Amino acid sequence: RKPITTLRLSQMREQGEKIAILTAYDATFAAVADAAGVDCLMVGDSLGMVCQGRSSTVGVSLESMLYHTQCVTQGLLRTEGRALIIADLPFGTYQQSKDRAIESAIQLMQAGAQMVKLEGGGWTTEIVAFLVERGIPVCAHLGLTPQTVSALGGYRVQGRQAAAADKMRAEASALDDAGASMMVLEMVPAELASRITQAMHACATIGIGAGSGTAGQVLVMHDMLGLNLGRMARFVRNFMHDAGDVQGAFAAYVRAVKDGVFPDKTLHAW
Ligand code: KIV
Ligand code: NA
């Protein structure tokens, strides 16, 4: 089993093989998800909610991200895993300046990340270009961006109105041109997510609550195992329901993403 690289991910995008991603925060779950065939593991700042019990991702520190990135990296090293590790730049570690962004990104890379993710469009474009030029692969994130939930007025679908959709499409194209390898589209109408996906030159779109027209999918691992402290998002499927064990649930998710049967038309955010 060959390791997943950014080159392999761009081949998958070009050949239309869907990219299956799950979040991971510790060594054991990382190794199990990898063994189930997950292409990328995302050390998301959602760890603030699922590991730390916070009500949002806003308070997550870089230190916490580094700790969990090291745990996931160690899990893959021990098991000779192949998944590519993506780590979130948490709120307050890239907004200030390009220098601040690259210092934070370097720390995540040194902890084992192979790609960093940051939220937002427009002002992030030059930060993405700055990191990419210096050898740091970047995943962008548009639509519902949890770090700015206060400004967005809650966890709700983004890009419904024509003006907001046009703005998102322009931001996505600018991030593609800036060299982003991937782009999470969260809680975006399926039609808009598909249009953005079609317009990309090199960037692989990864949907969550954004329909099935994207180059790949991501879910929070706890959500797809049916483990949730609050209300389950409407676009999540419980893959544990029909699986015998956790690795079976992860494998069923990978198969459903690759076959294009997850998400189906009933699983959406709007
Ligand atoms: O923090 C996270 O887990 C994420 C993914 C759900 C995209 O940002
Ligand atoms: Na995140």
Automatic annotation (TrEMBL):
Cofactor(s) required for function per UniProt: Mg(2+)
Ligand binding (3-methyl-2-oxobutanoate): 45-46, 88, 117
Domain of life: Bacteria
Binding site for Mg(2+): 45, 88, 119
The keyword Metal-binding is assigned to this record: yes
Gene3D superfamilies noted in UniProt: Phosphoenolpyruvate-binding domains (3.20.20.60)
InterPro entries: Pantoate_hydroxy_MeTrfase, Pyrv/PenolPyrv_kinase-like_dom, Pyrv_kinase-like_dom_sf
Keyword terms, alphabetized: Cytoplasm, Magnesium, Metal-binding, Pantothenate biosynthesis, Transferase
GO cellular component terms listed in the entry, alphabetical order: cytoplasm
Enzyme Commission identifier(s): 2.1.2.11
Comment on bound cofactor: Binds 1 Mg(2+) ion per subunit.
Segments traversing the membrane: none
Active site: residue positions: 186 (proton acceptor)
This protein's pathway: Cofactor biosynthesis; (R)-pantothenate biosynthesis; (R)-pantoate from 3-methyl-2-oxobutanoate: step 1/2
Subcellular localization(s) per the UniProt record: Cytoplasm
UniProt entry tagged with the keyword Secreted: no
GO terms under biological process: pantothenate biosynthetic process
Catalysis: reaction(s): (6R)-5,10-methylene-5,6,7,8-tetrahydrofolate + 3-methyl-2-oxobutanoate + H2O = 2-dehydropantoate + (6S)-5,6,7,8-tetrahydrofolate
Broad EC category: transferase
GO-annotated molecular function: 3-methyl-2-oxobutanoate hydroxymethyltransferase activity; magnesium ion binding
Cited NCBIfam families: panB, PRK00311.1
Family, per entry: Belongs to the PanB family.
Record-linked PANTHER family: 3-METHYL-2-OXOBUTANOATE HYDROXYMETHYLTRANSFERASE (PTHR20881)
Assembly and interaction partners: Homodecamer; pentamer of dimers.
Function: Catalyzes the reversible reaction in which hydroxymethyl group from 5,10-methylenetetrahydrofolate is transferred onto alpha-ketoisovalerate to form ketopantoate.
The protein, known as: 3-methyl-2-oxobutanoate hydroxymethyltransferase
